[in-house]
Amino acid sequence: MKENFYLKEGIPVFIDKEQYWGEVDEGKMIKHLELIKEKGFSYFKKKLLVEDKGFYDFIFDETRADWRFCLPFKKNWKVLDAGAGLGANTFVLAKEADKVYSIEKSFLRAKFLNLRKKEENQSNIDVIVADSLQLPFESETFDLVIANGLFEWLGVTERFKSPKKAQEHFLKEAIRVLKQGGYLYIGIENRFAASYLLGGLDHSGLRYTSWMPRFMANLYAKIRTGKKYRTYTYSRSGYGKILKKAGFKNIEFYLPLPGYNAPRHIISYNHFEGLKFIVANIMGGLNFRKKILKKIIRFPFVARVWRIMFFSFDIFAQKP
In this structure, are residues 64 and 263 in contact, taking their beta carbons and an 8 Å threshold? Predict the structure, then answer.
């Protein structure tokens, strides 16, 4: 790890300008941290389970890291969790890897990770505050780089005018710090997901922007919010192209159901029979659209179209 950092409450900080974002607003995160300081992490965990089961699962549900079973994971691996959030992947992987570096651009989130690390006695986790666009590590350090819910947010930066250029730069950084044969994992939404076409909110906070041409989404976002459209997602083809351009090989796509943040089932993109079986026999939900889908998914054309418009992807790519 490079040496140009300072310590803040025992956490190495590699950036000059801290910023906060997250699943809860900054004020609520500060209150969570104050509660942990006053009564301990175990008390916070029990209280959260009672008061907000959804948020509790988002942090502590270990099935969120089930994508790892798609990799030939080894005990001696060194792992980088880029944009680690509140640790859903970090703490699962730390039980199976030699070392996990968990990086966050937000000091408050890094502080939460560090408190959790101490509570769970995970000495093989190093928490640092750093920018994923400027990784403070030597080349060929890691066997696995994780970008779960990160890639779409990389464009929200002042360092690059183009969001795509920022994403391409991250991929170059990822391939730099990976060992030969190392893996990159990306968990991310599909630009052309059916849910967005049906009115679901894009990362922009607006409807339909992911489906629009970029220039149109940018104009629409500036009119509605005063900000540019920078949270780029892509289709399967688009992700494949940007990864190949960065130098990755052996690019594989999986379909996590219901989504990459809750992968109850993970099906290979090319396994039609598996996809049809999961939808027809296992997929939950009794709303009208799901009932119809369960009945018509057996038709190959429907399965192919639904696969193209699937909500999100688990993507794996390898450094040559």
Answer: yes
Closest CA to 99 of 142, 59, 148, 147: 142
Q: CA–CA separation, 102 vs 89, rounded Å? A: 9
Per the CB < 8 A criterion, the answer to whether 267 and 275 are in contact is yes
Three-state DSSP class for 88? coil
3-class DSSP assignment, residue 164: helix
CA distance 288 to 214: 32
The token duo for 42 is 């175990």
Which strands form 178-189's sheet, in the order they lie side by side?
6-8, 11-13, 125-129, 99-104, 78-82, 142-148, 178-189, 312-318, 249-259, 262-268
Q: Would you give per-residue pLDDT tens digits along the chain (320 residues)? A: 666 889 999 999 999 888 888 888 999 999 999 999 999 999 999 999 999 999 999 999 999 999 999 999 999 999 999 999 999 999 999 999 999 999 999 999 999 999 999 999 999 999 999 999 999 999 999 999 999 999 999 999 999 999 999 999 999 999 999 999 999 999 999 999 999 999 999 999 999 999 999 999 999 999 999 999 999 999 999 999 999 999 999 999 999 998 999 998 999 999 888 887 877 776 665 666 667 776 777 777 877 888 899 999 999 999 99
Token pair belonging to 43: 């008390």
